[in-house]
Amino acid sequence: MPFRLIYRSHNRIPADQLKSELGAIFSVARSQNKKADITGALLIDGDWFVQTLEGEESAVRALYDHIEKDKRHERLSVIDAQDVEDRVFSRWSTARVSEDGQPDIPLLMNRDKGGASPAAGRPTTPEQDAVLDRMREAAKVG
Ligand SMILES: Cc1cc2nc3c(=O)[nH]c(=O)nc-3n(C[C@H](O)[C@H](O)[C@H](O)COP(=O)(O)O)c2cc1C
């Protein structure tokens, strides 16, 4: 049974370095997480990061302990940590979920533009929507 951890943290990256630092974070996350069989998503919303990590519990907890030490964010708080029936981001080592950037969940991007094309079917699964809503809510609490 997979384990899912969702945490929120406060961004410490100066605005002029944000683009390059985020590029570096996604690049490392995608290759490292793939190796550890961890999937998930990272939302960037203004000053807040909200990240979902899914995988084997010990691997997820080890990765969280590692990420927690990163000086590019602070004030980490775990929002949820529990066993789950299934992964919801099984296709993404680290999906990018951003309100103003370029989300790389293609169908989600379509939805943000006013709905996926009929041929594309459902933009996201209800299970993904539930986790994504939770992540967006967490970023708003500020
Ligand atoms: C918000 C945020 C999310 C991150 N997510 C991941 C992640 O999912 N996987 C990962 O390997 N590193 C992630 N990192 C980067 C790690 O903290 C760390 O820099 C990276 O794993 C390289 O570690 P190393 O220099 O010890 O090899 C994240 C960093 C931040 C600030």
UniProtKB/TrEMBL annotation:
**Domain BLUF stretches:** 2-95
Q: Which SUPFAM superfamilies match?
A: Acylphosphatase/BLUF domain-like (SSF54975)
Signal sequence: where? none
Pfam families in the record: BLUF
Which InterPro entries does the entry mention? Acylphosphatase-like_dom_sf, BLUF_domain
Kindly give the SMART domains that the UniProt entry links to this protein: BLUF
Q: Name one molecular function that GO assigns to this entry.
A: blue light photoreceptor activity
Q: Region Disordered: which residues? A: 99-130
Please identify the protein, giving its name as recorded: BLUF domain-containing protein
